[in-house]
Amino acid sequence: MRSNKIHNVDLFTQTANENFEKHIKTQSKAALTLIEQKVNWDKLISPIQQKIESLRSDAPAGRKRHELIVIVKCFLLQTIYGLSDPRLEEEIADRRSFQIFLGLTSNDSIPDETAICRYRKMFAELGFDKVLFKAFNKQLSKQGLIVGKGTIVDATLKQAQATPASNRDSDAKFTKRRGETTYGYKGHIGVDADTNVI
């Protein structure tokens, strides 16, 4: 019988996690860390949490369910990286950055493709998928981040040292964010999901 436990306790020691955070630098890890820091997960999930719990109350006992935040993050990983259900299951088992993003430890089961498919069907039938991704994109866009399928883009504004009247900086332009006007540059950092190129 197949088990979807991670079964790799040494990966989750505090020292291993600290070394990963300090020394392993990948674009995928940087993108997921950025999303983890910028998203208010409670605010994102709370509108649908109660409705899902009410549907679960009559469900028969069985394998321990995954927390809703894990399932929601799985959907986000699929959207950002363009992964099928079976491929997502494989990537979670194989990629430390995915495991950390999902908050999984060696004692946790990986959401398998059947569970992910079942949740997606339920989300689609109840319209939660549209509510979820609209709220997710709204949170990130307020912070200058754009998430598209396959790409995560961070748009940062940098004030120019020259003044507009000096004509010394022909590359600088005016832009407005949250009602504030800035004369300078807009820097975009994008991580391509297929190649992991910045």
Characterize the structure shown.
This protein is α+β, with helices and mostly antiparallel strands. Helices cover 49% and strands 16% of the residues. The protein has 8 helices and 4 strands. The protein has helices spanning 14-23, 27-38, 41-56, 68-81, 85-94, 96-102, 113-126, 128-142; strands at residues 145-148, 151-159, 173-177, 180-192. It has a 4-stranded antiparallel sheet. Strand 3 (173-177) and strand 4 form a beta hairpin. Helix 5 (85-94) packs across helix 6 (96-102) and helix 5 packs across helix 7. The longest helix has 16 residues, at 41-56. Mean pLDDT is 76; it is low at 6-10.
Number of helices: 8
- Detail the poorly predicted runs: 6-10
- Specify the structural class: alpha+beta
Order of helices and strands: HHHHHHHHEEEE
Report how far apart the termini are.
41 Å
Largest sheet: 4 strands, antiparallel
Strand order of the main beta sheet, please? 1-2-4-3
How many strand units? 4
Topology overview:
Blueprint: H1 14-23, H2 27-38, H3 41-56, H4 68-81, H5 85-94, H6 96-102, H7 113-126, H8 128-142, E1 145-148, E2 151-159, E3 173-177, E4 180-192
Helix pairs in contact: 5-6, 5-7
Give descriptors for this structure.
single chain, 198 residues, alpha+beta, four-stranded antiparallel β-sheet, 8 helices, 49% helix, elongated
